[in-house]
Design brief:
There is one protein chain. The chain is built from 17 helices and 14 strands. By secondary structure, the protein is α/β, with parallel strands linked by helices. The protein folds into two domains: 150 residues, Cobalamin-binding domain (Rossmann fold, 3-Layer(aba) Sandwich), CATH 3.40.50; 315 residues, tm_1862 like domain (pyruvate-formate lyase- activating enzyme), CATH 3.80.30. It has a seven-stranded mixed beta sheet, sandwiched between helices. A five-stranded parallel beta sheet has the order 8-11-12-13-14. Strands 9-10 form a two-stranded antiparallel sheet. Helix 7 crosses helix 8, helix 12 packs parallel to helix 15 and helix 16 runs antiparallel to helix 17. The longest helix is centred in the last third of the chain and has 24 residues.
């Protein structure tokens, strides 16, 4: 029996939910009779050192090792691949968005094979190759070395029938790496009902799923949800499609099926502001939608236009209000620091954030622009600002097993450290404007946390003041000593983790 180890390396951030990409690969491997194991070193309660992760992998005596890579943890993945290269003599396969975009980079960091694009059928072909039933040069979508040169096989066509794929094999993950308290089982609630996004935002890269939208049937999606209900006892789900509402008719069919079956469930999704209307939102609400994640990105008309968002500031405000009126809580994401932006653009975004605060439940604590390879924005500005390969220039922790320390104030207020990357050579005035936007977002987030605990106006202000004081202490201490901040905020973080358990309910 062919043995396959699938890995997610250490990462600078915690990966709270099992990666669906690896889960789909695991299911496809089981389908052809492989013995499969998945280890996610970035899971919240995984505690592997780099060496321990390698030892675990070697102990399985795998015939093939697969590693998924995205930009944020590319260095960590390459570090792991390097250690595995020295420890085992089996093919190491890299896949995912980053090696799809830059296959030569992964091969130059000791990966033996790169799977470009969707990997479900490619991984089955690789098993057949290992068993002597296929030739490497005949497998579409692969990059590898042959005769000392890098060879790129023709690209693999996108999977058209998503219904034919087995459900993600979430049972292959170590449950204890994600779940300590009972409510956290909802970390297994993620699913995807479509692939691809037809829009062309200048900062967004879609190297794996592409722009051609392919959708699962409502029946297939409901079958997976019912399977999760039976296996994990959950009634709450989270769709991570690039754009769940890309096809109104399909969403209505999905909602109607839930209503016909009288399923007592709730669910969240990602939507685009110009793909919803009052009729659709009302139907989604009736069918159990309890949250929509919108990428608003900016309150500047020029930035929305140049980023090719396809809607105006006024349309964005109207859609957020429409969602609020429908009774669906929503999250609004913003992005700061586009290369053409000035402090005036950021002020426009701050003004817009304050204007729509009533309509949104939460604004994430970050969003400072990072140029992603393969995007129009990256290609347009890479020579001017010389940020090629920036993802390889970050300094890893001394011990590879240690995640980058995230101070308390960045967890609950705003992720300011991304401003240090300074990809677009921001002026002092621009940095000041972005910090001001961060403080605006941070204050709104603190109010959100306080509102979760009380509706009393007086207690709300008191709680907000207490949280803000803790944020100030965290920021001030971190400037003096990150280690001291970690020690001082440790009790507060434990309380925050208990609070977060409630978020999974």
């Amino acid at each position: 029996m062919t043995k396959v180890m699938l890995l997610q390396s250490h990462a600078p951030t915690v990966n709270y939910t099992p990666p669906l990409g690896l889960a789909y690969l695991g299911a496809m491997l089981e389908q052809v009779g492989c013995e499969v194991r998945i280890l996610d070193a970035s899971a919240p309660y995984a505690s592997y050192t780099l060496r321990e992760l390698v030892v675990e992998c070697v102990a399985l005596r795998p015939d093939l090792i697969g590693i998924g890579i995205m930009i944020p943890w590319a260095q960590y993945s390459y570090q792991l691949i390097g250690e595995l290269h020295r420890a085992v003599d089996v093919p190491i396969v890299a896949g995912g968005p980053h090696p799809t975009q830059l296959p030569e980079e992964a091969l130059n960091h000791h990966a033996d094979i790169v799977v470009r694009g969707e990997g479900e059928y490619a991984i089955q072909d690789l098993v057949r190759w290992l068993q002597g039933d296929a030739r490497l040069e005949d497998i579409a979508g692969l990059s590898y070395r042959a005769d000392g040169k890098i060879r790129h096989n023709p690209s693999r066509t996108l999977i058209q029938d998503l219904n034919a794929l087995p459900f993600p094999a979430k049972h292959l993950f170590v449950r204890e790496h994600y779940v300590k308290a009972a409510p956290e089982i909802n970390k297994f609630r993620t699913l995807i009902s479509s692939r691809g996004c037809p829009f062309g935002c200048t900062y967004c890269s879609k190297p794996v799923f592409g722009t051609a939208v392919r959708m699962r049937s409502a029946a297939s999606v409901l079958m997976e949800m019912e399977s999760l209900m039976e296996t994990y006892g959950m009634r709450s789900f989270n769709f991570v499609d690039d754009l769940f509402t890309v096809n109104k008719r399909r969403v209505i069919e999905f909602c109607d099926t839930i209503l016909e079956k009288k399923l007592k469930i709730n669910w969240k999704c990602i939507a685009r502001l110009n793909t919803v209307d009052a009729e659709l939102l009302a139907k989604m609400k009736r069918a159990g939608c309890v949250g929509i994640n919108y990428g608003v990105e900016s309150g500047s008309a020029e930035t929305l236009r140049r980023a090719r968002r396809g809607y105006t500031v006024e349309q964005a405000e109207a859609a957020l209000k429409m969602t609020y009126d429908a009774g669906i809580p929503c999250q609004a994401n913003f992005m700061y620091g586009f290369p053409w932006e000035t402090p005036e653009h950021i002020e426009q975004t701050i003004h817009f954030i304050k204007k729509i605060e009533l309509f949104v439940e939460m604004i994430p604590a970050g969003g400072i622009l990072e140029p992603t390879p393969g995007t129009a924005l990256y290609e347009e500005y890479k020579d001017e600002y010389r940020f090629q390969g920036w993802w390889l220039k970050r300094r890893l922790p001394t011990k590879p097993s240690e995640r980058a320390t995230v101070p308390f104030f960045e967890r609950v207020f705003f992720v300011f450290h991304n401003l240090d990357n300074n990809f677009f050579d921001y002026s002092p005035a621009m940095k000041k404007a972005i910090r001001k936007a961060g403080c605006t977002v941070g204050n709104i987030r603190l109010l959100h946390y306080a509102r979760r605990l009380t509706k009393n106006a007086l207690l709300l202000r008191i709680l907000w003041a207490m949280l803000y004081t803790v944020v100030l202490v965290s920021r001030s201490t971190y400037r003096v000593s990150p280690r001291l901040e970690g020690i001082l905020m440790s009790p507060v973080l434990k309380l925050a983790e208990r609070y977060q358990e409630r978020e999974w309910c």
